[in-house]
Amino acid sequence: MHSEEWISSILKELESQSLDRHLIVRPEAGGKIHIDGKVILNFSSNDYLNLANHPVVVESSIDYVKKYGCGATASRLMSGTLSCHKELEKALAELKCYPAALVFGSGWLANAGTIPVLVERDDHIFADKLVHASIIDAIIMSRANFHRFNHNDAGHLAVLMNKCPAKGRRLVVTESVFSMDGDIAPLRQIADIAVKYNAMIMVDEAHSTGIFGSNGSGLVRELNLESLVNISMGTLSKALGGYGGFIACSESIKEVMINKARTFIYTTALPPAVIGSALGSLKVLKTNPELGKTLLNNARFFRERLNEAGLKTGSSESQIIPVMVGNPAKTLELSRELAGKNILAVAIRPPTVPAETARLRLSVTLAHTQEDMTRAATVIAECAREKGII
Ligand SMILES: Cc1ncc(COP(=O)(O)O)c(C=O)c1O
Q1: What is the pTM for the complete model shown?
Q2: What is the pLDDT of residue 301?
């Protein structure tokens, strides 16, 4: 087949399954978007704490650009480690209550770089069936034996670990708050099993950092599991409203990553603007320790309104609330209808979520008022009813 024909056959196949994806340009980011005097309620933003445009965060970012310039100009191991990188790593280690932290270019790069250092060919990795794509890709890159345990099922993890040959290192990976379901992993049980079978533990806290735990330290900290969880991974791009990723860990794990993690070594260090914005967000969290709790209360309010209106929200216990539809074409239709009513709720379809579990993934942010959420729940339920979804 001619290469052009082959490329268009890929797109046609995606379209025929309602799995095609398109970029839609928006004039601004965050939980509310203003277009031509209209306000769009954006339930597809990860700016949970409304910090992306917070004046303290914006000012901090500008200050760091003025002080350090626009680019780090080299990779971290060349001349790209600036004093602001050290300052942020110190602040992140303190937030997470770990001895050290190491910043990567993004959350994706933090997972992709860290996991293949911890496990290699002939080792074993145990991961929840619903972990994020960045973890799956990291596992593939590591070439370790991959054991998938049923979602949030610590008992199944124990069965798999018990069956696993003794040879090789073992690593258990899960998320604390799941990105597409908003439910919470049984971290204590998972940690106990990992310890029993002599495995390392890594927890992806992309969606709990900034929200759970004191000052947004995350769920590992809230549950006092730092001494059992070897690596707490986080991102600066969601609740912190900026960009970049990191791991919190021991000094020795940090040193090993500096020497071995390919996504840390072979790329330019994050620019001062994003380091400044992350430090600004951490400052806001410190001075407003109630932000995460307020968000979780608002999320509970929204879930209650959605459930009262007849919508199912799975087992969400966080600011991420799935509205389950199942069929990708119906999910797309619903999402498009809502867009026409100034509600942005992007359709999440396979392969991001398993087959037949297409959904709207709603994320609550501090930009949303109770009135916004009440209206959105009513409109989403009306549209879902019209389309025979509920
Ligand atoms: C659970 C999880 N881990 C990692 C990432 C990657 O983080 P980043 O967007 O900072 O690359 C994401 C983001 O989509 C995520 O949801």
Answers
A1: 0.97
A2: 98
Q: Which CATH fold topology does 55-287 show?
A: Aspartate Aminotransferase; domain 2 (3.40.640)
Give 196's contacts (C-beta < 8 A, 6+ positions apart): 158, 161
Residue among 78, 71, 109 at smallest CA distance from 262:
109
Residues noted as catalytic:
179, 207, 238
Ligand 1 centroid distance, CA of 38 (Å): 30
Domains in the chain: boundaries: 19-48+290-386, 55-287
Given this model, what pLDDT does residue 256 score?
A: 98
Give me the residues of the chain with pLDDT under 50, please.
none
pLDDT at 277: 98
In degrees, to the nearest 5, what angle opens at C-alpha 203 toward C-alphas 202 and 206? 135
pLDDT of residue 36: 87
Atom of ligand 1 nearest to the CA of 244: 10
Ligand 1 atom 10, closest CA: 107
Q: What is the pLDDT of residue 166?
A: 85
CA nearest ligand 1 atom 9, residue: 107
Task: Name the closest-CA residue to atom 16, ligand 1.
Answer: 179
Give the domain 19-48+290-386 fold. Aspartate Aminotransferase, domain 1 (3.90.1150)
Rg (the chain; Cα; Å): 21
Nearest-atom number in ligand 1 for the CA of 179 is 16
Kindly give the interhelix angle for 55-68 and 272-287, rounded to the nearest 10 degrees: 140
